[in-house]
Amino acid sequence: MHLRGVILPEGEVRDIWVRDGSITFDPVPGAETLCRQGWIVPGLVDAHCHVGIRHGGGHEDRAGAVAQAESERAAGALLLRDAGSPIDTRFIDDHDELPRIIRAGRHIARPKRYIRELGIELDDERDLPEIVAEQARLGDGWVKIVGDWIDRSAGDLTPLWSDAILKEAIDAAHANGARVTAHVFGEDALPGLIGAGIDCLEHGTGLTDDAIEMMVAHGTALVPTLINIDTFPEIADKAGKFPVYAAHMRDLHRRVRGTVAAAHEAGVPLFAGTDAGGSIRHGRIADEIAALTGAGLSAHDALGAASWDARAWLGRPGIEDGAPADFVVYQQDPRIHPDTLTAPYAVVLRGRVYRTHDPVTGHR
Questions:
Q1: 84, 117 in Cβ contact below 8 A?
Q2: Is the CB of residue 3 less than 8 Å from the CB of residue 40?
Q3: What per-residue confidence (pLDDT) applies to 357?
Q4: Burial of 149 (0-12, 13-18, 19+ CB in 10 A)
Q5: What is the DSSP letter of 32?
Q6: 291, 226 in Cβ contact below 8 A?
Q7: Of residues 13, 70, 60, the one with CA closest to residue 39
Q8: What predicted TM-score, i.e. pTM, was given to this entire model?
Q9: What is the DSSP letter of 328?
Q10: In the chain, which ranges are E strands?
């Protein structure tokens, strides 16, 4: 296969070829030309999704998990960081036509302090380091813990773990070659998580100036999942028994884009994740990129957060000689025409072309 177009992020017009599923810059005799102009973007990344959680809640079966992965591929998301799943999705690795998944194992929480049946629930927090080490060995270099959740006795978000236990647990993950991320909505859990050396925060709606400063000092990344945060008012509307919690969730939603803008301006590494699975359908990475732009990121930085920058963060190559041929082709510059992100000209995964829209009419 042969392509000519603007290669992002460099922005140079180049010719590339695909041979045996890999990218090469050396001409391949007899290669069929896929395009002679366009914008060629490293395969998109959904850095927070849940292949294996059914839309609306519950566990997916294998066929449902495959359908979720196919939805991501159709959107151009060819690398998925699965931030917690109740099922073992390793069978997807046997499907060359599906995106690659980087797994974080199962969520780790306390009893009645997370969505039922999705996570591992620990009665004694002292077991956290051992369970984190176990999940580190079972995962793909990541572990996911639940940092805060509604405490019904307090009527609001509160941390799940003591600072000392968090430090032990994160050290245990690092000793087993894994990074740690945490679900966290509110403010109170942040100092303990960041101070313990956590590598990433999911959502981070409660970030304060002090917490952002700590993140910069520790090199902590943020995946803000903005399209999921837009469900906070609905969550609050259903929390009538807990008015303090409901008001807190509405306030976090109200100021989230300013929070993300402040984190970005301070230098916190930001990456795009939709939180697909549960309340968010798969295949919405374009919406998350648009949301990041609405939070103050430039169109270039927002796309990078879902492509080349995210791939580098996760240790995966972009458009490089010898790299897997995983990229998306657009007919217009997606940084200037963001709507084109919803209608790729072609998705190329492991050197195989998947057309999601008719190249002439633009229809599915």
A1: no
A2: yes
A3: 55
A4: buried
A5: P
A6: yes
A7: 13
A8: 0.96
A9: E
A10: 2-7, 12-19, 22-24, 33-35, 39-42, 44-49, 77-82, 100-103, 108-109, 120-121, 142-146, 148-151, 156-159, 179-184, 200-203, 221-223, 327-330, 346-349, 352-354
What residues have CB less than 8 Å from 30, skipping those under 6 apart? Answer: none
Pairing of the two strands 2-7 and 33-35: parallel
The 3 state secondary structure assigned to 242-303 is CHHHHHHHHHHHHHHHHHHHHHHHHCCCECCCCCEECCECCCCHHHHHHHHHHCCCCHHHHH
Give the residue carrying structure tokens 């236990």: 165
CB-based contact 73:349 (threshold 8 Å) = yes
Model pLDDT, residue 116: 87
List the structure tokens of 105: 């194992």
Q: Would you state the structure tokens that stand for residue 146, as one six-digit string?
A: 């639940």
CA distances from 194 to 50, 182, 225 (A): 24, 10, 19
Q: Could you tell me the two tokens for 185?
A: 């909505």
- pLDDT tens profile 54-88: 988 889 999 999 999 999 999 999 999 999 999 99
Residue 195 burial class via C-beta count within 10 angstroms: exposed 0-12, middle 13-18, buried 19 and up: middle
């066929």: which residue's tokens?
A: 63
Pairing between strand 156-159 and 327-330? unpaired
